[in-house]
Amino acid sequence: MIKLFLLLGLLVVGIIAGPFIYDKLGYVLISLGNWTVETTMPGLAVALLLLWLLWEGTKWLLSKAFRLSKGSFDLFGSWQSRRQQVAFTKGLVALDEQNFQEAQKQLEKAAKADAFSGVDLLAAAQAALRLNQTDKARELWQKAARQPATELAATLNLVRLALKQENHAEALRLLEGLHDKHKDHPSVVAHWAEALAGLNRWHELKDKLKGWKKHLGMERYDHWMRAAALGTFAEIASKEGANELKARWQTLPRSARKDPAQQAAYVRQLISQDMHNDAVEALVSFLDAPEPGLLALFKDIRAKQPTAALKKLENWLKQDDANIAVLSALGHLAYNAGEYRLAERVITRRLNLQQDKTDMLLLAQIKEATQQPMQALEIYKQTLSGE
User: Fold this and answer.
1) What distance in Å separates the CA atoms of residue 325 and residue 287, rounded to the nearest whole number?
2) Is residue 239 part of a domain?
3) What is the DSSP-derived secondary structure letter of residue 303?
4) The domain containing residue 348 runs over which residues?
5) 3-class DSSP state for residue 35?
6) Which residues form the HemY N-terminal domain (predicted)?
7) Structural domain includes residue 17
């Protein structure tokens, strides 16, 4: 830069001094209409130099003024940003303190600027929800759902709200509108299953469960498999009758008929159709060993002579006489079949191993049925007092 100014200075000196040295100043005439300028070469050089200096000075002043104004704007912007940050912090603290009105007030201040990637909208929606302002909460979640960072969280809140209001179709619409990268999220999958169940779309639910197993976890997967199977069988029974249900069961693939969830749903539907003899027969054929989910179904069966089932349960007790699930199932099945002595013996044994209010009530009913009213009354008192 210094070299440039030195060269420029030498050039100017040469232009001005040259004509004087050779005693030839030259002549310059500039004519614009009626306006003329006459000067020498050195005069023109000086005029051009002054114009250049004036231009550079003007640029420098404008640049300086712009920087000063930008600094003032940045200062104002920084001040505004700090105010929004303070409001956001106060809002979160108030929300945690359950001061929902203050939280709403502060978070609305923070939400005036798009500075928190939608997190402020989520927090404001929670405050509105706690104040029973459901429509306001929905509006805030809808805004947050348009932010990439909060799309999933906001949509899940909208889905939960729709499910709570039993608007399963709306919940499903929201879930289907999510970006593909979110559709394997455990919460998305769980709510999707709930929405399909609410719409009685059992076949679709069963198909989707095949790919959802690892996302749901075994417990929830089993729950929804049972629900889907039960819903499917209930649909068949209600539309086509119990006999068609039995026929349809036989047409299922062997793997489906071996699935405990499918078996439990089938037996429950037989019981709901008052086909208790068919239900107990099915359970006996399904069970090769005590399986808690199926054992519990014996308690709902009211068959008059469930001989094969009673024998199977008693054989299991010979192998393990402390199996509480088998004792309880046998006691209920025997009582419903009118086998009061057997029922009393096994339920007493079961209660000696572990107290249970349901089985205590069953024992009281057995005492009533066998003309032991005082003992029945004493057991009822124990269940009411929690002893």
Assistant:
1) 14
2) no
3) -
4) 306-387
5) strand
6) 26-129
7) no
Segment-wise mean pLDDT, segments of 10 residues, the chain, 387 residues: 60 60 59 71 68 77 69 47 64 61 68 66 83 90 86 91 94 92 91 93 90 89 86 82 83 85 88 90 90 89 91 92 92 93 93 91 91 89 74
Question: For residue 334, what are the contacts with CB-CB under 8 A and spacing of at least 6?
Answer: 310, 340, 342, 343, 346
Report the C-alpha gap between 334 and 190 in whole angstroms.
Answer: 39
The pair of structure tokens assigned to 319 is: 């192998």
Greatest Cα pair distance in the chain: 149
| Domain harbouring 331, CATH code | 1.25.40.10
361, β-bridge pairs: none
Q: Of all helices (H) and strands (E), which one includes residue 36?
A: strand 35-39
Contact between 301 and 333 under an 8 Å Cβ cutoff? The reply is: yes
Domain assignment present for 312: yes
Cα gap 363→346, rounded to integer Å: 10
Number of domains observed in the structure of the chain: 1
Q: Which sign, positive or negative, has the C-alpha torsion 247, 248, 254, 257?
A: negative
Phi, psi of 39 (to 5 degrees): -160, 175
Residue 266 near residue 242 (C-beta atoms within 8 A): no
Spatial CA neighbour of 212 closest among 222, 199, 198, 202: 222
Single-letter amino acid code for the residue at 173: R
